[in-house]
Each structure stands twice: as structure tokens, then as C-alpha cells.
Amino acid sequence: MNILLHICCGPCAVIPVRVLRSAGQNVTGFFFNHNIHPYQEYRKRLDTVTAFAEQEELPVVMRDEYRLEEFLSAVAALPLERCSYCYASRLEETAKAAAAGGFDGWSSSLLYSRYQRHDEIRRIGEEMGARYGVAFHYEDFRSGWQEGIRLSKELTMYRQQYCGCIYSEKERYAPRSAGA
After folding, report:
1. In sequence order, which ranges of the chain are alpha helices (DSSP H)?
2. Are 105 and 75 in contact (CB under 8 A)?
3. φ, ψ for residue 91 (rounded to 5)?
4. Residue 180 has pLDDT above 80, yes or no
């Protein structure tokens, strides 16, 4: 089966790529992450995916699109619901690319992270798969969490410290008030 794998970042792609390949899947990566901010962080992640793809001989479709204004206008009114927008916008673009590229199925490295909402990702993925006529491949890659961390360090990958958007950066680094 030819599968298009949305890659949110290099470290999160290690285990999904290995698991899918070991199951006999022909994997192509897809980088589209317009939610990552600031721009320097976006570039580090894109460069890390590029280096990983070269190391693994993984073909990757790169959608190098930094859309700060679009992201902010979509989530500014309800920042606590931003993850739903991020999932839907990136998964929809992956489903479209899978359909246009003639892939048998598609998935996402978001399913590797223990911090992501798997039920929501699966629901959106299945909806987008039905909409674009290419099956969403759900697989829970979280059992490889520690192995993925070890391997990404071994591969000397840049390892980010927050999910990606400006709000998650704030949650990671900004001081919290005593009552929060």
C-alpha cells in the first residue's frame, strides 16, 4: 500500500515511518504545518524533516507555507480550541494531497504523540478520508514514544520544546501566575 504520512516534525516521524515500513507500506512524507510559530521555529522543523528524509531515503512532499495571519485569524477568538483547527486544516490538506497523488491511504505522525487528542484526530481523519475518497489509516504509534525519543537523539535531530503554535509556546515558556 502507498501511504502519505503527514509529518508534523522530524522526531515525531521516526516511529511512524519505521512501523509503517515494517508493515510493508510504501511511505511518502507530507510536510504542511502552517501553525508553527515563530518563523525560526518553523524553519528548524522544516530543516529537520528535510535532513531526516535524506537519512531515511524517504520521499517527502514539502508544502513550505508559513501562514501566520491565516492561523491567527482562524484561532484568535477561541485560542483554547486552536488544536481542532490545527488538526483539521493539516489533515484536510494531507487528504487532498493523498487523493491528488493517487495514494491508497494516508495518516499522520500526530498519532505518535502522547500529547495529542487521538480520538479527535481519528474522527477528523476519517471524515477527511471519506470526503476526499482516500482511506485514513489510524494507528496508535504512542507505544513507541520512548524509543522514538531515543532514536531522534541518536539521529541528532532538533527536538522542539512545544507543540508548535504561538499559544503552545506561551504555555511552555511564559511564567504562570500563582493561582493558575
Report:
1. 10-22, 39-56, 68-75, 82-100, 118-132, 145-154, 166-173
2. no
3. -70, -35
4. no
Q: Strand pairing of 105-108 and 60-62?
A: unpaired
- Per-domain residue ranges for the chain? 2-173
Residue with cell 500563582: 178
Q: Residue 78 belongs to what H/E stretch?
A: none
- Looking at the domain covering 2-173, what would its CATH class be? alpha beta
User: What is the Cα–Cα distance from 112 to 48, expressed in whole angstroms?
Assistant: 17
Residue 170: predicted pLDDT: 85
With contact defined as beta carbons under 8 Å apart, do 124 and 90 qualify? no
* Pair 158, 44: CB distance under 8 Å: yes
Per-residue pLDDT tens for 11-64? 999 999 999 999 999 999 999 999 899 999 999 999 999 999 999 999 999 999
For the entire predicted model, the pTM comes to 0.92
